[in-house]
Amino acid sequence: MGLFDFLGFNKLPAGVTNATLVVTDAATLARAEQFINALQNKFRNVAIALTDATATPPALPHLQLPDDLTAAAQRITKSQPQRLIILGLGEQHLPLAQAATCPRYWLNARDANIALAGCALISTSNADTHITGALALGDALVDLTSLPHIASDTEICLRFKEQHESERWLGYFAATGEDEEDTAYALFSRAIRHKMGMMLLAPRDPARCEPVYRESIRYRLQTIRHARFSTSFVPLKTRVYYIEHAEPIASLYGCVDFVVVGATLNQNAKNTPDIITPILHNRPVIVGTAHRENPLLAAAITAGIVWAGEDNEQIFTHIKTIIDTPELGQQRAEKARAWLNLQVGAMTRVLEKIT
Questions:
Q1: Are both 61 and 165 inside the same structural domain?
Q2: Would you state the pLDDT for residue 35?
Q3: Is 318 among the domain residues?
Q4: pLDDT tens, 286-304?
Q5: Does residue 11 lie within any of the structural domains?
Q6: Are residues 222 and 335 in the same domain?
Q7: CATH classification of the domain holding 82
Q8: What is the rounded CA–CA span in Å between residue 350 and residue 310?
Q9: pTM of the full predicted structure?
């Protein structure tokens, strides 16, 4: 026994020893609540080992691992876990897996060298991730039991005939929430200076539609309101197609060249981001920084199947890229559809493999 052990400085927190130990980082833990709860239901004694600091410590027994990997591995060894689950970490954390002699499971693995960890299970969230011996089970943190049926409405898309014939792009800012429309107009104004197109804008809350419309008048952009649409085709001079109730939101996804997902542009937005509907319509999906604690959204960003902008400048860059090279947008949209199908039942599949 070393001096620090004798003096109690290396004492582990209560409840950490002989537990199912989940090793992860703070960002991953923030979206892992359902998965951790499912582990508790299955194994009862669950503890967390964090590789970085968190502003909100877990309610479960937990320990903060040292930055030094050798010291961190020693803490893992000392905890004598019944099973070790490494969640979403990269191959640089191999020593942590190799420090335990119990069954080890590396979930949401991304790097090829993780194959060297000697794990009972290596699972990936994406079929495009190739690791020797790994199973593509889907993202362990996504509790998605089914996908909605999507019916395309080709008739409603005919009203944009003039835009398509003139090779104008259509961008859908769908289901926007509080404080997001100003960002939408700012991005659109920049995009039409790059190449002319049209924005479809649909606030998620019908109660906000009229106030948002009145506020948007200051932009002086030719606008047609969906509720008052009375001609066969949307005129080419139209800049904004404004949708004021929930019903046509889904049916318009199939008409556009890309979708900027509402509730991802501002943290004040109260609705939940919907990436499922545009992915099922095979549309390229662009998201901002808000509500990334949403497990499905976070998983999609990690998998790289949506165009994630870290700020408005990067969102604009993504819009411009899709406008200029639509084939790139379509390629990612097709990968997104395959990825989303894999996520159905992912958490259940992963949990069944952990024994």
A1: no
A2: 97
A3: yes
A4: 999 999 999 999 999 999 9
A5: yes
A6: yes
A7: 3.40.50.11720
A8: 30
A9: 0.90
Q: Under a CB-based contact definition with an 8 Å cutoff, are residues 233 and 274 in contact?
A: no
- CATH value at residue 216: 3.40.50.2000
Q: Which residues contact 148 (CB under 8 A, 6 or more apart)?
A: 276, 277, 280
The type of residue at 38 is A
Residue 19 backbone dihedrals phi, psi, to 5 degrees: -105, 170
Domain count, the chain: 2
The CA–CA distances, whole Å, from 301 to 139, 213, 295 equal: 12, 31, 10
pLDDT of residue 230: 66
Count of other CB atoms within 10 angstroms of residue 53:
9
Claim to verify: residue 112 and residue 245 sit in the same structural domain:
no
296 and 163 within one domain: yes
Backbone conformation region of residue 150, classed left if phi is above 0, alpha if psi is from -120 to 50, else beta: beta
The residue whose two tokens read 């085709």 is 233
> What residues make up the domain containing 87?
3-136
For 260-273, write each residue's pLDDT tens digit: 999 999 999 999 99
Task: Tell me the three state secondary structure of residue 176.
Answer: strand
The pLDDT value recorded for residue 218 is 87
Tell me the longest C-alpha to C-alpha distance in the chain. 84
Low-confidence ranges of the chain (pLDDT < 50): 1, 3-8
Q: Which residues contact 242 (CB under 8 A, 6 or more apart)?
A: 201, 202, 209, 213, 216, 223, 224, 225, 226
Position of tokens 């870290």? 310
End-of-domain residue from the set 136, 162, 194? 136
Which is nearest to 180 in space by CA: 205, 149, 160? 205
